[in-house]
Each structure stands twice: as C-alpha cells, then as structure tokens.
Amino acid sequence: MDTVETHTATLFFVGDRVYKIKKPVNLGFVDYRTRQARLAACEAEVRLNRRLAPDVYLGIGDIRDAAGTLHDHMVVMRRLPDERRLSSLVISGARVQPQLRAIARRLAVFHEQCQTSPEIARAGGLAALQALWLEGMMGVEPFRDLLDGEVVDEIGRLALRYLDGRAALFAERQRAGRVRDGHGDLLAEDVFCLDDGPRILDCLEFDQRLRVGDVLGDVAFLAMDLERLGHPEAARYFLDAYREFSGETHPASLEHLYIAYRAFVRAKVAGIRDHQGEPGAADAARELAAMALRHLR
C-alpha cells in the first residue's frame, strides 16, 4: 500500500482503488474538524468531480471499527496509471501535443456545460477580482519572509494596477457567459491521458467562491502548472488549442493576469506545506511567486 499526503487529505493506494480521507484540520480556508464537515466535503468532491471523471469517482465509503461504530468517511476512486499523468509525460519529455489538444477540447466542452447564473457571473466582475487579489495578499502574509516581502508587495501593486480601469473588459466577459462554476484547481498531476480520452480529477470542492470565475482562469491554472514544470511552450500550445476549440477571444494580458493569480495561490499552498515540514516546499513557493511577478510585468 502506498500513501500520499496533501495539506487536507491522506490518500491510500490499494490495488486498483484509491481511498481518500480528509484530515481533521482547520486551515482557515477549510475547516474539517468535525466528521459532518468531512462527510460534506466528500459528497461535494464526488459530485463535482464526476463532471469530468464520472468513471473514476466511485462513491463514498464509511470507516467503522470492529464493533461497527462509525468514525469517518472516505472518497473511493478508481486508481489510474501514474505513467499516464500529464505531469509524468511532460517531465519525461514525451510528445504531448495530441494530449494537450484533447484536454483543451474536453475543457472547452466542459465549460460550455458548466453552471452559470447572475450570481456566478458576479465572480468575474472587477469588484470580485479586486477582492480575490486583496484576499490573496492577506493569505500570504504568514509567508512574507519566505516569499520576500518586496516581491509580495510588487505582485499586489501590479495586479491591482492591471485591474484598475478594465471594468469594461470584465463586464464584457460576464455578458458573453465566460464566468462559470468550473474546476478551480487544474494541475498536470491530476490530469490522466488515457487511450479513450483525458480524465481530469480533483476539482476545488470546498469553496464554490474560489471555484467559480472566468473560464480563462481555469485553463490558466493548467498553463501555469506546465510552465512550473519547465515547459512554457506546452503551456502556450495548450492555451492556443483552448482558444481554437472554445472560440475564445481575449487580450493576451488577461492570460498573464490569470496565470499570475494561479501561481500566487499555489505559492500560498506551498507556504502551508513548508510550515507542515514538506521538503522542497519553500523553494517551490519562491519559484511560484517569481512566476506570478514575471507574468504581471
């Protein structure tokens, strides 16, 4: 049996199954200290992830002791081959253009099907984006020394400067229906390139407010991650393919804004992992902050 730790869960890989148990933690943006909260999170994870991987998320299992007393819950998943992860393929130097096109096509269709509403559309407006960046700045405050306070301040200044005066751009994106309840956490390690098409796992289930937004923010997350893996050309190819399949029109600067935001969010996550003692997390946090700054300049 293999185990993998994240900041919110422990995953157990047993045969052809994966069992994911939520940690009883309170990280501010999630609070899983009660069994009821963990059950709700499991239910949301299965429901939302079945949108892109219905044959992977099999359901929810109960954890009971020998006497039958219920103690906790877990997400039960079909195990997929590690060597078919997009991250593994990219790192190995494999040719991934066909897979990136398939992922872009799948996401374009997915985004057309994703829920939208006037309330969801507000998440793509100027005020909401300003609030997200300001909240992000507050979220990295515990990691200012790790990330370099001057870098953090420059990221915030440039991001807010970009947002100022672009209310019309964001309003047009809202009117065009480009703001949806999407994935929210598109990482290359959670995309599996199978013979019958991609399976995209592990959407952001714990906070709809962080999951909804401009569809460009969704695809920018994966572009950011491909760049983090050392392949900016793959990121560019993927973004261009998504533009082709979705009929997207947007200024290139908007791509940079969303890539920067996704890198900034991941820098905070890496900071949390560093505080939890994960080796290499500090360097990863600094690299992500540098990426965010690079895309804002």
TrEMBL record:
Transmembrane segments: none annotated. InterPro entries: Cell-binding_unc_protein, Kinase-like_dom_sf. This is Aminoglycoside phosphotransferase domain-containing protein. It comes from Candidatus Frankia alpina.
